[in-house]
UniProtKB/TrEMBL annotation:
Entry-linked InterPro entries: HATPase_C_sf, HATPase_dom, His_kinase_dom, Ig-like_fold, Reg_prop, WD40/YVTN_repeat-like_dom_sf
PANTHER family listed in its UniProt record: HYBRID SIGNAL TRANSDUCTION HISTIDINE KINASE C, TWO-COMPONENT HISTIDINE KINASE
GO MF term (any one): kinase activity
Keyword Nucleus: no
SMART domains tied to this protein: HATPase_c
Species name: Chryseobacterium lathyri
A Pfam family hit: HATPase_c
Official protein name in the record: Signal transduction histidine kinase
Gene3D superfamilies: Histidine kinase-like ATPase, C-terminal domain (3.30.565.10), Immunoglobulins (2.60.40.10), YVTN repeat-like/Quinoprotein amine dehydrogenase (2.130.10.10)
Length: 1003
């Protein structure tokens, strides 16, 4: 009965120790904005995203970045949908607006037809069915989900399928009340329905049931099914166990992930990361739990045994070890107990017959294999520290109490004559306590003590101190498969013994490897080094490369408690600090259990990429792309290196290099991924980041530019300007000194030249004045002629009107009124004309000093029209002003007014019973003014004369008596405003005067 009880206990303990995991919990106390995690997804860049009722959260394995300042009514979000592989992940907030997560950042976007979270059909609203658990608390809701061939519509009592091509409807014979919505899920492109009545899982294709499966876990009414279509993952929660459900080769594959206690309640979202072996559980009330699985198995002693502190162990069979208490353990726990008692835990060895050698105080005990390891006393008063044997003899390293009155031990290396402890062939004495020894070759042994390493010659009996200049406490001596000898020490790291010289290996970042216990080498050439603070892994090739080139960087990969240990402290100080088993597993003793693992199955996790796109400048977050522009006034700049990495952060090696600093070299940044800058000078700086991505030392690099503009006095051009000004100052100072000496010799000459220039200027001014006076006299003559010419018409009209009145014997009242009105109007026009005489004077005397003004051309013509309107009406002639009312010009107003006056005067004189039309045309800065009449028309000879005169007015003879002053004056005035006139006789009757004017401001 006792035998069966022991077997049951062993089986019980094996069950206990099969599950190896760690749990990390996150809530509002350590990173989350809210304790309800609605959904979980991983994007194509490796970031984990969470939806909460207070924003969207991005997680990179070390820190949470919260996004919650969206232009929405609230920041509550539910489930994810979309295509992570296409960088298009969507979620919908309570306000109904769609949020797109793309390029590692969320933003509010318009909903496209392909990405809608609900559709309306037959006056029924169907919500997108993307996760079967998110709706379980909302009864009465209708759902839809598209498949490759069609769309499924799920209502409270029915499931309907519509084919995309034929639009045919298929009503499935399934009663799907809402409380059982979780019964429907999709894996890849296969749709499944759980039928609890038949205890079958039915597969549906194109709206028809095509096959059924018997899966008790899926059909168990106590099971909770968690399905996420966007993740293409299905999970089963049954009791405290969590299973993963997959569908491959037309069958279900259900595997148990973990068994948890009191953590499966309130779970509303699940995601499993196969790459990092992590299970993410989102709770409705307790935030996020991350379950990390490990390939390490830690085995502890049964509760009935003392504490689980292990030291020396030996391989026992191909998959077990035995300790100094006779307990046999494999990765499932205690499998057998030999009941060794009262042995010290620091020494254990096999002899040539696989008998176990142990120590009890100062006695040597041998447990015989033939007698099922029953103990016998082998030798008394022997403090055996280390032991090994070869084909001919035993080798023992023993401690001796010092006899010189000092406290401590000395050592003796015993070489026995045969495979027994009877006859000693050689003895080698050491002044210090022995720790470890190993055979170097057939002629030499390596022996370590608490003070140094020694090479012992078996032929000459000489002892060579290999570290005479330093004191080293040797802990272990290991020979690797390539024949190299590696020495571990207590407190000073480990060394390579090469050519009788110890070459020290570099430390890790935290100096934990300063006290390595031993080195275990796997078949891939990696060293596994247990320490007092973690287990380290490093390729031997990297260490040997460091020996050749000390600039080579050695990176140690660290495993800690998060990898599956109960403690980070492994145990040394014994003759055996680790074992290699026949099945390929390694076993390491620790302060809390034995750690079993297969080194070839342990994966090293490294990041795949880095992203530098966020910065905190004086407390304000800024996003950028490759170029970061910063002002010199900025006091503090924090650049964030975002790296999705979900393993031990100790192995995340990120180094940065910034140009423009005093010491441009690679610098490691902290686990927060933040690089801080202060007091950076102006310029274009290169910020380079590299991250380790493999055990072989491969890095990936990322480079951005930091541009800080200089102040004006820091610019190159300013420095050049100041330098040039200084050089010019010196140059002109020298020249001034030289010129000062010459100046006195030229003073008289300068005075004479100055007076000569003054006299020449006076003469030149007199000549100019003479020409001006002559021109003014000529202009005055022309003015007199113009006045005479212009007032003739209205005076003659008054005379004719008066004559007509005198010749009439009988006046009617109406006729008298007409005559008086005509005389009044003509007199008034003559009066107004005399007022304009001042304008004529100004034209000739002040036109050169006048500044142009902006005025309306239409208004100017209108004024002239009013002046001549009475005369024209008397001749039954109409003056029509068609000039553009919006046309404003800079042409000299007085000059243009005189020109128009003269031309209108001529047209009125020679036009009776007709029309005088004035029009304008604009092309760029050129204005064309047309004055067209229907009078008698100008003679062709006159037109030819004025045309030639216009081209050479300075030299042509003026025929004033023959042709009068009018048009001569017009030509003179046109020269002043750089204008021209084209005179053309109309085909029917009348003349057209075409003025070509330049409209520009002349200051």
């Amino acid at each position: 009965m006792q035998k069966y009880t022991s077997a049951f206990l062993l089986f019980f303990f094996s069950l206990i120790y099969t599950q190896q995991y760690n749990i990390q919990s996150y809530n509002t106390d350590n990173g989350l904005p809210q304790n309800s995690v609605k959904d979980i997804i991983k994007d194509k860049y490796g970031f984990i995203w969470l939806t909460t009722e207070n924003g969207i959260v991005r997680y990179d394995g070390m820190k949470f970045v919260v996004y919650k300042n969206f232009p929405l009514n609230n920041q509550r979000f539910t489930f994810f949908y979309g295509y992570p592989e296409k960088d298009s992940i969507f979620t919908t907030g309570d306000s109904g607006k769609t949020l797109l997560i793309s390029k590692r950042s969320p933003k509010v976007t318009k909903t496209s037809k392909r990405n809608v979270d609900f559709i309306s059909r037959d006056n029924i609203n169907y919500f997108l069915y993307s996760s079967n658990y998110i709706y379980t608390t909302s009864p009465g809701i209708s759902l839809y989900f598209p498949c490759q061939e069609g769309i499924y519509f799920i209502r409270e009592n029915s499931i309907k399928y519509i084919n995309n091509l034929s639009k045919a409807k298929e009503n499935l014979n399934i009663k799907a009340k809402y409380k059982n919505i979780a019964r429907i899920f999709v894996i890849d492109k296969s749709v499944f329905f759980i039928d609890y009545q038949s205890k079958k899982v039915q597969k549906i294709e194109r709206g028809k049931i095509v096959s059924s499966y018997n899966e008790p876990l899926l059909t168990d009414a106590k099971s909770k099914i968690y399905w996420s279509r966007v993740n293409n993952q299905v999970f089963i929660f049954n009791g405290n166990s969590i299973y993963r459900c997959e569908y491959e080769d037309k069958r279900f594959k259900i595997s148990k992930l973990v068994q948890l206690e009191d953590i499966t309640e309130n779970i509303i979202s699940v995601y499993y990361d196969k790459t990092y072996k992590r299970l993410y559980l989102g709770s409705s009330t307790y935030g996020l739990q991350i379950v990390s699985f490990t390939d390490f198995t830690t085995v502890q002693r049964p509760p009935s045994k003392p504490e689980s502190v292990f030291y020396s162990t030996l391989p026992y069979g191909s998959s077990s070890v035995i300790n100094t208490y006779g307990e046999v353990y494999n990765r499932n726990g205690l499998v057998e107990d030999k009941h060794f008692k009262s042995n010290i835990p620091f020494f254990l060895a096999y002899d040539q017959e696989d008998n176990v050698i142990a120590r009890k105080a100062s006695d040597l005990l041998l447990y015989q294999k033939k007698k099922d390891y029953a103990k016998i006393v082998s030798k008394r008063n022997t403090i055996l520290i280390d032991f090994f044997f070869d084909a001919k003899r035993y080798y023992a390293f023993e401690a001796l109490e010092k006899t010189d009155g000092t406290i401590g031990y000395s050592g003796v290396l015993m070489v026995y004559s045969d495979l027994s402890f009877k006859t000693v062939k050689k003895r080698f004495f050491f002044n210090d306590e022995p720790t470890k020894f190993l055979k170097f070759d057939k002629d030499y042994l390596l022996a370590g003590t608490t003070k140094g390493l020694y090479k012992v010659s078996l032929k000459t009996n000489k002892i060579i101190n290999l570290n005479p200049d330093t004191e080293l406490s040797i802990r272990n001596i290991i020979q690797s498969s390539d024949g190299n000898f590696w020495i571990t020490t207590s407190g000073k790291g480990f060394y390579l013994l090469k050519n009788n010289r110890l070459i020290k290996m570099p430390y890790d970042a935290d100096n934990n490897i300063s006290s390595p216990h031993t080195i275990l080498e796997d078949q891939n050439g990696f060293f596994w080094i247990p320490t007092n603070n973690g287990l380290y892994k490093v390729p031997e090739s990297k260490l040997l490369r460091y020996v050749q080139d000390k600039k080579t960087r050695v990176n140690y990969y660290r495993f800690s408690k998060v990898s599956g240990f109960e403690t980070n402290e492994f145990n040394g100080g014994s003759n055996v600090c680790g074992n290699k088993l026949g099945n390929g597993e390694f076993v390491l003793p620790s302060l809390d259990g034995l750690v079993f693992f297969n080194p070839t199955e342990i994966k090293s996790y490294y990041p795949e990429n880095i992203h530098i796109e966020r910065a905190l400048i004086d407390g304000k977050e800024r996003f950028f792309n490759q170029i970061l522009n910063i002002k010199q006034e900025s006091n503090r700049i924090d650049i964030f290196i975002d790296t999705p990495y979900y393993s031990n952060p100790d192995n995340l090696v990120i180094e940065t290099k910034l140009s423009g600093t005093t010491n441009v070299k690679w610098e490691s940044i902290g686990k927060d991924g933040k690089f801080s800058i202060s007091n950076l000078t102006h310029g274009n700086h290169s910020f380079v980041v590299r991250v380790l991505v493999s055990d072989t030392g491969k890095y990936i690099y990322k480079k951005i530019h930091i541009i800080i503009p200089p102040y004006f006095y820091q610019t190159l051009w300013f420095k050049i300007l100041i330098s040039s000004a200084l050089l010019l100052f010196i140059y002109f100072l020298v020249r001034w000194r030289l010129s000062f000496l010459k100046k006195r010799n030229h003073e008289l000459e300068e005075i004479i030249n100055s007076r000569t220039r003054s006299l020449s200027d006076t003469v030149e001014k007199l000549e100019i004045t003479k020409r001006k006076l002559h021109k003014e006299i000529e202009q005055q003559k022309k003015l007199i002629g113009t006045i005479t010419h212009d007032i003739t018409t209205p005076v003659k009209f008054i005379a004719l009107t008066a004559k007509e009145a005198l010749n009439k014997d009988d006046f009617s009242e109406q006729h008298s009124e007409k005559i008086l009105n005509s005389i009044y109007k003509s007199s008034d026009q003559l009066y107004n004309f005399t007022i304009t005489l001042k304008e004529y004077s100004d034209i000739y005397t002040h036109h050169q000093s006048d500044k142009t003004e902006l005025y309306s051309l239409h208004k100017l013509i209108e004024e002239k029209k009013i002046l001549f309107n009475a005369i024209a009406e008397n001749n039954n002639t109409a003056i029509i002003n068609n000039v553009d009312k919006t046309l404003w010009v800079w042409i000299g107003k007085n000059i243009l007014s005189a020109i128009v006056h003269n031309l209108l005067d001529n047209s009125v004189k020679f036009t009776k019973d007709g029309f005088i039309t004035i029009e304008s045309n604009v092309e760029g800065n050129t204005i064309t003014l047309l004055i067209r009449d229907t009078g008698i028309g100008m003679d062709e000879k006159k037109i030819e004369y004025y045309t030639k005169l216009q081209d050479n007015i300075e030299n042509e003879k003026l025929l004033l008596q023959k042709y009068g002053m009018g048009l001569h004056l017009v030509l003179q005035l046109l020269q002043m405003i750089e204008g021209k006139i084209v005179i053309k006789k109309n085909k029917l009757k009348g003349t057209t005067f075409k003025l070509i004017l330049t409209n520009k401001k002349n200051d």
